[in-house]
User: Which sequence fits this backbone?
C-alpha cells in the first residue's frame, strides 16, 4: 500500500500550472464515441480516472493514443456497446457513457458505477432523461438501455444533476428534433462539454444557464479541443497556501470559475490577486475562522472543495461552520482530522470546527478523493510526521499532487 509521508511546518511558496479538469475531461472522452471519427483532446491530466476511461474506450473498440497531455481517440471502429464491469466499478463517471453509447449505437449495457463512497448518488434522473428521449431501460443486475430512434423532447430535471445533464446532452446530440433540458446543471464542466460537442458539429446552446437546447444533427466530425483547467485542483492548491502561511501563484486557471472559493479564502484572511488566468494567494501566519461554508450546486460553494477548506479551518482562529447539502456522507475525513488533533463536532449535515493552535502528525487513511486531499493539507501544517494511506484515492483526481506540493517547498515523499 502506498502512502504519503509528510513532515509538516514548511511554508509553501512558488508557482505551479493547474492541470486539466478531471470533471470536464471524463465526459468529453465519453463524447468522443459520438463522431465515429478522430478526436484530439489537449490538456488531459494524468489521473487514474482518465486511465480508466481510456481503458473503457479501448475495450469498446476505439483506438486510443496518448502523448504527454494530448489524447487521440479514433472511434470509427467501435465493436462493443457493453462496458466492462471491472472498469465500471472503478469509477463513478463511467455512467456518462450511457448517453454517448446509446446515441451512437442504439444500445448500451453497463453495471452500476463505482467511485468514492461519499453518499447515495442515484442515477434515476439519468435514466428518466434517457427514457424521455425514447430509450427503453431495463435494470436486472445490469443497466440495459436501447433506442435507435431517439427523439428530442422537453426534460425537466427534479434536481440540477451534473451527470444527468451530461448524459441527456450526449444522447440528444444525434437524436431527431430538439431537446430542451430545464433546471440543467450550470457547472463550468457542462459548458466545456458543450464546447467540445459543438467543435464536433453538434448544435448545443445554453450551457452555464438553467436551460440547455440541443438541436439534433445527423453526423459529427473530427475535431481538436483543449480541456479547461481544474477549478477543484486550483482550490486545493489555494488551500495549501492558506494552511501553511504561504504564497503561491497558480497559472492556467479561469478565475471566473473560482469565485465561490476565492470569497471564502479571502474571508480567512488571505490576500488574493487575480487576472483572467492567474491567481496569487498570500496567507497570514494564522487564518481567521470562516463563519459559514454551505455547499450548493454551481455557482455555490463546491462540495468537492469542502474537505480541503475544513482542513484549513482546523487551526484557524475562531469557529467555522460547514453545511454539506450535496452528499450525506461527505464527512468521512473528519474522524481522520480528529486523529491529528482537530476539534470538530458533527450533527447530521452540519459540522462545527473550533480552531486549535496546532495539529500533530499521526497515521491517517484517505477514504475518498477529496477527503484524502484534505488529509494531505492537514499534514502540511501538523507538527511532526503525518502518514496518509489510501493514495490511490487521491491519484484518481490529482495529477502528481505530492510532486507539485514538493516543488512548492513541502516535505512530502511517497513511501
Assistant:
Amino acid at each position: 500500500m502506498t502512502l504519503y509521508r509528510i513532515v509538516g511546518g514548511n511554508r509553501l511558496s512558488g508557482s505551479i500550472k493547474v492541470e486539466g479538469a478531471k470533471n470536464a475531461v471524463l465526459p468529453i472522452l465519453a463524447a468522443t464515441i459520438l463522431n465515429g471519427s478522430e478526436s484530439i483532446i489537449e490538456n488531459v491530466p494524468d489521473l487514474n480516472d482518465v486511465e480508466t476511461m481510456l481503458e473503457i474506450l479501448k475495450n469498446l473498440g476505439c483506438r486510443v493514443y496518448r502523448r504527454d497531455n494530448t489524447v487521440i481517440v479514433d472511434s470509427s471502429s467501435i465493436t462493443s456497446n457493453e462496458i466492462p464491469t471491472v472498469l465500471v466499478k472503478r469509477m463513478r463517471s463511467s455512467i456518462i457513457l450511457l448517453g454517448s453509447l446509446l446515441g451512437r449505437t442504439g444500445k448500451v449495457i453497463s453495471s452500476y458505477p463505482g467511485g468514492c463512497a461519499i453518499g447515495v448518488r442515484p442515477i434515476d434522473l439519468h435514466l428518466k432523461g434517457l427514457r424521455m428521449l425514447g430509450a427503453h431501460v431495463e435494470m436486472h443486475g445490469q443497466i440495459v438501455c436501447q433506442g435507435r430512434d431517439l427523439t428530442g423532447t422537453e426534460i425537466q430535471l427534479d434536481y440540477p444533476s451534473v451527470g444527468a445533464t451530461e448524459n441527456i446532452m450526449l444522447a440528444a446530440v444525434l437524436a431527431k428534433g430538439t431537446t430542451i433540458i430545464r433546471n440543467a446543471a450550470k457547472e463550468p464542466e457542462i459548458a466545456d462539454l458543450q464546447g467540445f460537442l459543438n467543435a464536433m458539429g453538434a448544435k448545443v446552446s445554453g450551457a452555464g444557464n438553467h436551460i440547455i437546447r440541443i438541436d439534433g444533427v445527423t453526423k459529427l466530425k473530427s475535431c481538436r479541443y483543449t480541456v479547461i483547467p481544474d477549478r477543484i485542483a486550483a482550490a486545493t492548491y489555494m488551500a495549501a497556501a492558506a494552511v501553511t502561511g504561504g504564497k503561491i501563484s497558480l497559472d492556467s486557471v479561469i478565475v471566473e470559475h473560482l469565485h465561490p472559493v476565492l470569497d471564502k479564502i479571502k474571508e480567512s484572511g488571505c490576500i488574493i490577486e487575480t487576472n483572467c488566468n492567474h491567481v496569487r494567494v498570500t496567507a497570514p501566519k494564522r487564518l481567521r475562522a470562516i463563519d459559514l461554508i454551505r455547499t450548493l450546486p454551481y455557482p455555490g460553494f463546491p462540495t468537492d472543495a469542502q474537505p480541503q477548506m475544513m482542513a484549513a479551518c482546523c487551526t484557524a482562529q475562531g469557529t467555522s461552520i460547514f453545511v454539506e447539502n450535496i452528499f450525506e456522507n461527505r464527512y468521512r475525513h473528519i474522524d481522520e482530522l480528529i486523529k491529528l488533533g482537530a476539534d470538530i463536532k458533527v450533527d447530521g449535515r452540519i459540522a462545527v470546527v473550533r480552531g486549535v493552535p496546532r495539529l500533530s502528525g499521526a497515521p491517517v487513511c484517505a477514504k475518498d478523493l477529496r477527503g484524502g486531499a484534505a488529509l494531505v493539507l492537514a499534514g502540511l501544517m501538523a507538527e511532526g510526521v503525518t502518514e496518509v494511506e489510501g493514495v490511490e484515492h487521491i491519484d484518481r483526481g490529482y495529477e502528481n499532487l505530492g510532486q507539485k506540493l514538493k516543488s512548492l517547498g513541502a516535505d512530502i515523499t511517497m513511501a
About this structure: The domain at 3-18+229-414 is CATH 3.65.10.10 (UDP-n-acetylglucosamine1-carboxyvinyl-transferase; Chain).
